Amino acid sequence: MSDLPVGWARMTLGDLCQVEYGKGLTAAVRISSGSVPVVGSAGVVGSHDAALVAGPVVVVGRKGNAGEVHLMLDDCWPIDTTYFIRVPQTLEPKFLSWQLTRANLRSLDSSTAVPSLRRPDLEASEVIVAPRGEQTRIVAAIEKHFSHLDAAEAALATARRRLTRFEEVVYGEALTQGPLCRLGDVVHTTSGGTPKRSRSDYFGGPIPWIKSGELGDGVVTSTEETITEEAMRESSAKPVPQGTVLIAMYGATIGKLGRVGVPVAATNQAVAALFADDGLNPDFLWNVLRALRSELVSLGQGGAQPNISQTILRDVEIPVPPLGEQLVVNARIEQTASLWRALTQGVQVASARATLLRRSILAAAFSGHLVPRDHPDDEPASALPTRIRAERVSATASNRRRKAS
Questions:
Q1: Distance of alpha carbon 240 from the chain centroid
Q2: Which residues pair with 250 in a beta bridge?
Q3: What is the phi-psi region of residue 80: left when phi exceeds 0, alpha when psi lies from -120 to 50, beta otherwise?
């Protein structure tokens, strides 16, 4: 027994539409002043003065951003990293596009290197067909609900930007106190290393081995890899005690902080461990480094990969007030930072709920629960597949005649 509403039909995309390959159009031959959008797997990538296909078409990423869906209502040129699907007149283009978006075609990725989507897998995707009038009402309802979500998510994006500025203000208080000192004069720094990968006996031991990607401005209590005591003795990986402040020195995570949350750990060479002198509280050091992140990142620019060396770190000047004042500043920062964390978590929860709500709206739409049904003038969807197939046969014959002429 079908779980679809009466008058609806379930088909494969290949039964409904013809999936066609896009055609290459290099940037060198495109006409940038043209009005026809050139569409790649990630969306519009340029313009041209001629179209490959008349709209409306649904463009689906074939390589790269495989499975991404882009609805083009007007004429366009899908390039060779995409497929394109001519939308039959009996289907509402947005009705088809929303279904393919909901289908999560990216999960069909068949590659191990460059993400790719095979045409047979795309053609086998399920498509629900509702009566034509109901398709229009469903699309209108989806867009109404999504417009409210768009406004809510725009407000959340504004909130995130404000929270970022708030965070900078919170930690910036640590920079307003005390005389300046060179970091290397009040902190001892060291970095770790990577044991030989050829030595299997160096890995899988009891010592957490922290990599820069595992620094997320929090306490590190577990790691992807661990090493043995022998590996630490015989390599440049060094023991780092609990509570030590860590900072990422290379790549995308440059400037990210961490604290060792286990009795002893080790790090790789992309992480610097900072050991504060008796006159510098580790929590205050953390707050200062967090406030200086933008400056540290800028100091690491200029090479192929962002890189702040230990030499650069040691030359950075930081304020070092008396220890008692450091503790007072720490308490004020923590009080305000706890509010910032709570607000940030609230924004994250709201964003996650918005994503789930979008999925729920689409699920309701394509199960017949989003709009009122049984309009007397709706043609049953069971009649649409026959008309769609006839439309495809007519279009194919027309294309053959055009090519022959």
A1: 33
A2: 307
A3: alpha
